[in-house]
Amino acid sequence: MGDPQSYLRQAFKYFNRFMLLMWRLGLGSLVNFWPTVGGRIMVLTHTGRKTGLLRRTPVNYALVDGEIYCVAGFGQIADWYRNIMVNPSVEVWLPNGWWAGTAEEVLDPSLRLPLIRQVLIASGFAAYAAGIDPRRHSDDALQAVTADYRLLRIRRNTARTGRGGPADLAWLWPLATLTLLLFVLLPKQRRGKKN
To answer: Do residues 90 and 56 lie in contact, with contact meaning Cβ atoms separated by under 8 Å?
Structure first.
């Protein structure tokens, strides 16, 4: 049998593709409508450390005192984490807009565990899928299961709008609606002409 963590990573990879598509279709607010179950999900745009290409990764987040925090649950092997460590300039897509920002790892032990707990609580089912109950785990237990996690703070710089952000594929909705209407209405018109 394979490693359970590799199965979990693979499952999250597929789930992340779906989440990214939802955001690109303009459904980011819908993705976040029930955060206690589905979690708070944002999209993090970062630059590939080898390719220099823009990459997008949906991640769970918590907003604490106006700052955005997220965790790399698979630790330093997560590609998006390694990309950000090389180039900390990021863009975050949140339900209420998107911003350019700068990511930095939080290493202060007095801040780390309480903030990781907040992100895990805000992650909804994702923490439970990883076998973590962030509301009930003691500090020692939570520290043990998140020892490899990496905590990141994202400081927003400026508001951003324009191409390439949330809903860049929203144009598909009118096209799909028109296609569906034509599919439904055209056969009826043809039947009317035959009679």
So the answer is: no
Number of domain units in the chain: 1
Per-residue pLDDT, 193: 58
Q: Which of 114, 123, 176 is nearest to 151 (CA)?
A: 114
Q: Which has the closest alpha carbon to 75: 150, 10, 147?
A: 150
φ, ψ of residue 18 in degrees (nearest 5): -65, -45
For residue 195, tell me if it sits in a domain: no
Q: Which two tokens stand for residue 119?
A: 């992100």
Instruction: Please write the tens of the pLDDT for every residue from 141-183.
Output: 999 999 999 999 999 887 665 555 676 766 676 667 777 777 7
195 versus 23: the higher-pLDDT residue is 23
The domain that contains 87 carries what CATH number?
2.30.110.10
